[in-house]
Amino acid sequence: MESPQLKILVTSREPLSIPGEASLPVVSLSLPESSEGLGALRGTEAVQLFEERARAVRPDFEVTADNAGAVGEIVRRLDGIPLALELAAARLRILGVDQIADRLGDRFRLLSGGGRTSVPRQQTLQAAIDWS
Description:
Elements: H1 38-42, H2 45-57, H3 68-77, H4 82-90, H5 97-103, H6 107-110, H7 125-131
């Protein structure tokens, strides 16, 4: 049976080397410069993702002039890695952004214990790095 319109999307770090395969590189999320103002900070992809995921746990969360420094520090320290940003945002249930930024000296310990429904390699930043 043929299915000429069938398309399959596979995510992988390595090409599968199969006929018809097209590799599309995924670029890193844009990061804020340390000297950028609030508007420029909020315009970066890493901050937008962090804010979106933060609202999933705290619907009232917003990047403001008061927390912009801490949010910028978080996304820069985590190199804009989407999984790391998501794990950090989940910590807003119990910590403030200043506390998260302060505790990122040991980012592997802070960003642990992800969602129980996630596959093990996506539950912690350490597991993701080990897996990759």
